[in-house]
Design goal:
homodimer; about 300 residues; two-stranded antiparallel sheet; globular
Chain lengths: ~300, ~300
């Protein structure tokens, strides 16, 4: 392949980069309105260990709220979180704990919630990497997103996390506007404030958790498109990868393998709400997905400077 | 106002055009990510009389299906439609009739449904205007959409009609991609065909009808944005117009008045699922919306040639 030296500079030369570039070239044959790429967020576009940024955000809000009102610590979900009692959190169930955290923002308008998310992501430091969460995005993925858009792809984020949390930062982090984010969506209520109609957050979900097969249904419901490229890292992404990569014509599933304990983390991607007995590598072998080794394939993981 | 002679050429000079241009100029002060405009579809972006294009599409599908299987005419909803019995349709309720029509496409994949919609809209002729439905879009609105995008606005279609019907044609007709369309959404089911995961349509809705206050909630759920410009024509749009136009800073609600029986139609815009006792003009007076007279303000209604 010639003339590709400037492309995807953080992707090391080798079979992984070659296959990505081959897909990009082949996608030129696909009608423009079918050039659609979907990316999982946590562990695919940015770091998810040792804690999801969204959970760190809610924990920060919980600590602030508990400082103002110590009675919050009486509630089992909040007590487990404030004590860092992972067993208690697991026993209560992540879904129940997440909804208890959502209650902290019930009655808040979406714009105010988004402002708080943005301030946290740009200001709060990742616990081990020592940079703001906004700097824990993966440089090779930023390059891939830019290259896809340069080739006429529409690029979307399809996350198991909260839709509104990711929407608050997706344009700044990834160049994806709010309407390009599909996730687990909180409910709203219409209210009047100062005589004006406003929406406020509730503490109930309006979609099921956006993991596994739900990702396929939500891609159609919220985007109305079928992807020919899907990128993920956990069992929650497999359904979406199979959906994208089983199309006739150029299509590709990409699985990020977290195998770089020195520069990032080493772990098998799991879905919080989606059980499986297979590993990602087994699924990739079965379906012909491209496995990206962070250690071997990425010359650089995080943005410079 | 100087230097605006090339802008919005199908809008006649006068106070309506002046106010639109003033809003456009003022919107330059709004941060780019808050330049958001939403448009109703039927009666706002294209003609909705004497029949919604979507209903004409479903009627066409029903007649084809009934020709293949005459027993379909035994079903009350289909019989009422095939007989053109408006009273019977009204007695059954438009919601029930619409769901019966949706059954005609249960089990169909979204891409095939979209193909059929596109073929109908570009091929079938409007019953009185004598051109394909695709040519019944309003030229002044195409110019407004283009001018908004030139000024950095994101433009969306927020329709009471079926999301997937409008998504099928929105890019061609309005330059709005599928993810920019919010409507009344059919449900899907995940299935396997030839071993591959596919989605197929069901005959049940997954959202409530996208009219009235539901438009506000769906704008947030599906787009994650708050509009500063909303354009509509019927009672089903008033909530969205108030939502957009009550923001501090530059914002505008626009109501299209169908007052041109010679070139289009003359009627008071109603919502199929949303009752009201006020007229659009009363609401516009109360909230300061801009009323667009098709007869007085539009030099040209449909695209040329």
């Amino acid at each position: 392949m010639s003339g590709d030296h400037g492309l995807l500079p953080s992707w090391r030369p080798g079979p992984t980069r070659e296959r990505l570039l081959s897909f990009l070239d082949a996608s030129g044959r696909v009608p423009a309105d079918q050039r659609v790429a979907v990316f999982d967020n946590d562990g695919t576009l940015w770091c998810e260990r040792p804690i999801y940024a969204q959970l760190a955000f809610f924990m920060d809000a919980l600590r602030s709220a508990a400082a103002d009102d110590p009675r919050l610590a009486d509630r089992p979900e909040y007590a487990a979180l404030l004590d860092g009692d992972h067993q208690a959190v697991a026993a209560l169930g992540l879904g129940r704990v997440a909804l208890a955290l959502a209650e902290l923002f019930a009655g808040v308008e979406p714009a105010e919630f988004a402002d708080r998310c943005r301030r946290f992501v740009s200001g709060a430091h990742h616990p081990t990497l020592g940079v703001p969460f906004a700097r824990t995005v993966y440089q090779p993925m930023l390059e891939l997103l830019a290259e896809l858009r340069a080739r006429g792809f529409a690029t979307f984020v399809v996350t198991g996390g909260g839709t509104e949390f990711v929407r608050a930062v997706s344009l700044d982090l990834y160049g994806v506007p709010p309407e390009g984010v599909v996730g687990t969506l909180i409910g709203y209520e219409l209210a009047r404030r100062d005589g004006r109609p406003v929406l406020v957050r509730t503490a109930e979900l309006q979609t099921e958790a956006n993991e596994g097969p739900a990702k396929i249904e939500h891609i159609q419901a919220f985007l109305g498109r079928r992807p020919i490229l899907a990128v993920g890292n956990s069992a929650g992404d497999w359904a979406m990868l199979e959906y994208a990569s089983s199309l006739p014509g150029p299509s590709l599933g990409v699985l990020v393998d977290h195998d770089d304990p020195d520069r990032e983390f080493a772990y098998e991607g799991a879905a919080s709400t989606f059980e499986t007995e297979r590993t990602g590598r087994e699924m990739a072998d079965r379906h012909g997905w491209l496995v990206v080794s962070m250690q071997r394939d990425w010359a650089q993981i995080f943005p410079s400077g």
